[in-house]
């Protein structure tokens, strides 16, 4: 299929599957517990994909997966009931894709947090269906002239989202300019949990981390992590996989080319000051995978960085 499919389809019929282009507020309604904020504000276009393997919702703003539920299983991702679906506002939940930098820009702190791509529209330029009925959507983003005024590096971001019984994100970032390009990024996943205070996380024990609640000082993860207050930690050069252990299921987060692990939950005190989190802070844990801090890349002219993350539950 060819470029900008989203602009030309309301509905795409595939084998045992359908993809609908819909306004976010048609899907995340007050009846489903989403706040009235949605209907007051301008809306965002989302793709709802329903197949025999899963249901997923993807926002074209930010190429952000907002929901992913494998057939006969529970939803993996958390989307805040207080989310705003206003063009240009970050959506709280799902999997924001942070690039071409993660968090606060380390060279220029007044640049937008988490990069340029999460609050802008991406183009859907390909839809494929594999023989096993897994659906792949490819979305692309290139900085516009305003972006280039902030970050003067021409690049192309291509995100392939594979929707099967697992969710796989493959990100390819190409430096299309002539200069060495500083690059950090992350898949900033928000996982739906029964209660953050009962969650265990495997795969980071014994690791060194930077504590973002203590000026990025270095510590070693000696005990199990307990989510009983604000947690904001960066583990560099970890890679491999982590497992979120909830009372009734495990979520497996596997990644390649995304070696940094960031763990974040605001806790009650900070959440109370965040108008799109509030009392719901205990319903999610962020386990983010990317290349940031000590894993930041310097991409040569014409160079390419690739990262894959696969999420599954059992
Ligand atoms: O509020 P946001 O810009 O979406 O950022 C949400 C969070 O993202 C990451 O996890 C950072 O480590 C946190 O410091 C930050 O608070």
Textual characterization of the structure:
The chain is mainly beta. The protein has a single domain, classed as Distorted Sandwich (Beta-galactosidase, Chain A, domain 5). The chain is 7% helix and 41% strand. It is built from five helices and 23 strands. The strands form four sheets. Strands 6, 12, 13, 15, 16, 17, 20 and 21 form an eight-stranded antiparallel beta sheet that branches. Strands 7-8-9-10-23-19-18-14 form an eight-stranded antiparallel beta sheet, with no helix packed on it. It has a five-stranded antiparallel beta sheet with strand order 1-2-3-4-5. A hairpin with a 4-residue loop joins strand 18 and strand 19 (250-256). It is globular. The relative contact order is 0.15. Residues 90, 103, 113-114, 212, 232, 262, 264, 286, 288 line the site of 6-O-phosphono-alpha-D-glucopyranose. 6-O-phosphono-alpha-D-glucopyranose (G6P) is lined by residues 90, 103, 113-114, 212, 232, 262, 264, 286, 288. Its EC number is 5.1.3.15.
């Amino acid at each position: 299929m060819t470029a900008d499919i989203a602009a030309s389809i309301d509905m795409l019929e595939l084998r045992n599957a359908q993809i609908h282009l819909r306004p976010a507020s048609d899907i995340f309604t007050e009846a489903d517990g989403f706040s009235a904020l949605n209907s007051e504000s301008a809306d965002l276009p989302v793709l709802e994909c329903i197949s025999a393997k899963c249901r997923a919702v993807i926002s074209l703003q930010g190429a952000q997966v907002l929901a992913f539920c494998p057939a006969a299983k529970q939803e993996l991702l958390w989307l805040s009931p207080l989310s705003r679906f206003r063009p240009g506002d970050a959506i709280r939940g799902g999997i924001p894709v942070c690039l071409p930098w993660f968090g606060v820009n380390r060279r220029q702190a007044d640049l937008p947090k988490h990069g340029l791509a999460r609050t802008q529209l991406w183009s859907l330029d390909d839809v494929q269906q594999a023989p096993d009925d897994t659906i792949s959507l490819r979305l692309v983003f290139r900085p516009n002239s305003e972006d280039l005024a902030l970050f003067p590096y021409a690049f192309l971001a291509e995100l392939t989202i594979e929707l099967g019984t697992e969710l796989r994100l493959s990100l390819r970032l190409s430096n299309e300019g002539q200069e060495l390009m500083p690059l950090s990024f992350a898949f900033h996943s928000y996982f739906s949990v029964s209660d953050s205070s009962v969650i265990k996380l495997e795969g980071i024990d014994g690791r060194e981390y930077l504590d973002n609640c203590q000026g990025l000082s270095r510590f070693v993860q000696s005990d199990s992590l307990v989510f009983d207050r604000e947690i904001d930690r960066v583990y560099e050069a970890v890679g491999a996989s982590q497992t979120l252990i909830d009372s009734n299921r495990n979520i497996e987060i596997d990644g390649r080319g995304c070696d940094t692990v960031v763990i974040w939950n605001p806790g009650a005190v900070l959440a109370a000051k965040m108008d799109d989190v509030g009392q719901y802070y205990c319903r999610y844990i962020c386990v983010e995978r990317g290349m940031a801090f000590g894993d930041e890349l310097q991409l040569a002219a014409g160079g390419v960085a690739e990262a894959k993350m696969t999420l599954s539950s059992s």
